[in-house]
Amino acid sequence: MSIRDLLWQLPSVGMAWRNLGRSRVRTALATLGIIIGVVAIASLGMAGVAIQQQATSNLGGIADEVTIRSGTDSTTDGVTQEQVDRIRDVAGDATVIPEKTNSTTLTARDGSERFVSVTGLTRASTLYEVSSGDNPDRLRSGALLTNSTARQLGLEIGDPVEYDGQLYRIRGLIESGGGGFGGGSELVLPLSALRDQNYYDSVTIVASDGDEAQRISDAVETRFNEGDEEILSVTSFASIQENVGSFLDTLNLALLGIGSISLIVASVAILNVMLMSTIERRGEIGVLRAVGIRRGEVLRMILAEAAFLGIIGGFVGAALSLGVGLVAFEVLAGDATLVFGWASVRYLLLGFGFAVVASLLSGLYPAWKAANDPPVEALRS
Amino acid sequence: MSTSVIELDGVVKRYQSGEETIEALKGVDFTANRGEMVTVIGPSGSGKSTMLNMIGLLDTPSEGSVHLDGRDVTDFSEDELTEERRSGIGFVFQAFHLLPMLTATENVELPSMWDTDVDRRDRAIDLLGRVGLSDRLSHTPDQLSGGQQQRVAIARALINEPDILLADEPTGNLDQDTGATILDELTRLKEEEDIAIVAVTHDEQLVEYADREVNLVDGEIGE
Ligand SMILES: Nc1ncnc2c1ncn2[C@@H]1O[C@H](COP(=O)(O)OP(=O)(O)O)[C@@H](O)[C@H]1O
Ligand SMILES: [Mg+2]
To answer: Which residues form the ABC transporter domain (chain B) (predicted)?
Structure first.
């Protein structure tokens, strides 16, 4: 049995196929309308997912951290030890890392000098990745230096650096940018090295996840800051992530809205095309009814035409959207294959489903009208 | 003995057009029997098509009754009438009314297309052979002459083995000679299939082929 015979097993489908073949240009234009609608919905939706994934991966682990600094209403020029202890109470199991920061000038072997930022802390291992050398859980002696600074100054592991008249041996080299938002310092020293400074410049809390970070951040706020007063300034990246997340959700919704509007426009176009073609074929449909074709059969035939438009348009649209999605994910998330994840694939299905449903809905009225046209009236026309 | 397949009793048909009511049929009595060809003749606007629509169950009378094979079908619903048309009535139109995207064979199959009937195709091919179109099976209407198209239409009218074949000006769009061959065809099929044929025309030529002639004047059967 050939495909043609198979098609005619479902006469409505066979008839619909022939009818669409009669005015190819009109069929093509109607399909094009759907394709545009589907591409709009699916590719905007997928682009939204790509943006979301890229934003989430950029924010990364930062969302788990809370950074506390002295606020504008504080009477001290930094965070006091007493405040740190109270923060520890609030933080529970989360790691609390008080830091003192400063800057100094390091001298290279060849005598050249370089101005570097300095931080003093004990829990260096939590905030910094060491690329060579060792990174003790508690930094009591010695120093960590960023790779790039070490290279510029020609320093190696084991070489001494001087801070405040004291020498510290370099124990490890670190990647730059550790330790919270805004990047870390170039030279990491034991807290004792900055003992001249009474107060801590910042306290970083590393929580187990974003929700926990948010909870700690809120607790610190209520504990230290009454009303509008700002004793401690609390920066939580969890709330930033949440804001970014909800912004992206809104963006996605807006993109989908734009997509849906184009699909609605496409369905109106289909409604128009179907209505025109059934009006043009009024006499023909009258003949069908006269020779005994049932109303339901006429209805199915015309709905099948609409469904064909939707399926073809939806399929081509989804295929094009997949292409757009591949590009969007390559550009935005750096990995084209992420497009095959459910988060974005569901937009392809959504676009396709939308196309079929919208086409069927648009076909409903013309089909109903044609099926219920009295055959005598239709034949007279 | 002949059996009446279709019977109109005192059929009145009124049309409302605007304020005016047109009485297209004014109490028509009519019967047609198996194996006979009846022509309804009358001037344009006399109500011939309206009468044929009543016989063909395409429309319902304003007054009077319609019997098909002895059953009163006057008050049938549109869906019931559709079933009767499908199984018992064949139509041939003046303008042929073939579907342009279907081949001759498919056009003949059309009335039974939605039936799950396996030898529909064979019967269509057989019918096309009987109207002399064996070599035109997969031609589309635009590849056929007017006379050939009307033969396809006749074959289509016969696909469901009707009891009655209705033809509204079947030769109206054909030249004299082609018209004659179509009428020959109908006469032969009438005998072979033992069906009633009701043909409507304003063309005297058709009368020669008729077993019986009915004159319709201004919505009334005359003498
Ligand atoms: N659907 C209709 N609405 C209004 N008037 C109609 C309708 N159908 C037929 N008529 C009128 O009924 C009369 C008979 O028409 P018709 O049966 O078509 O005549 P014929 O076929 O003999 O030419 C004409 O006056 C025509 O205008
Ligand atoms: Mg007429």
So the answer is: 6-223
Residue B134 parent element (H or E) = none
The ipTM, to two decimals, is: 0.93
Global pTM exceeds 0.90: no
Per-residue pLDDT of chain A (381 residues), as tens digits, is: 566 666 667 888 888 988 888 889 989 988 998 999 899 889 888 888 888 888 777 776 677 888 898 888 888 888 998 899 999 988 888 889 898 988 888 887 788 888 888 888 877 777 777 777 777 767 778 888 888 888 888 888 888 888 888 888 888 888 765 544 444 678 888 888 888 888 999 898 888 877 788 888 888 888 888 888 888 888 887 777 777 778 888 888 888 888 888 878 888 988 998 899 899 999 999 999 999 999 999 999 999 999 999 999 999 999 999 999 999 889 887 888 888 988 889 999 999 998 999 999 999 999 999 999 999 988 887
Q: Which residues of B touch A293 (CB under 8 A)?
A: 82, 86, 110-111, 113-114
For B4-215, which CATH class?
alpha beta
For chain A, say whether B59 makes contact (Cβ under 8 Å).
Answer: yes
Q: Which of residues 259-318 of A touch B (CB under 8 A)?
A: 283-284, 287-295, 297
Tell me which residue has its CA closest to atom 14 in ligand 1: B47
What six digits make up the tokens of B27? 């109490």
A2 lies within 8 A of chain B by CB: no
> Got the DSSP string for A209-261?
SHHHHHHHHHHHHHHH--TT--SEEEEEHHHHHHHHHHHHHHHHHHHHHHHHH
Question: Distance between CA atoms of A204 and A185, rounded to whole angstroms?
Answer: 14
| Partners of residue B213 on adjacent β-strands | B39
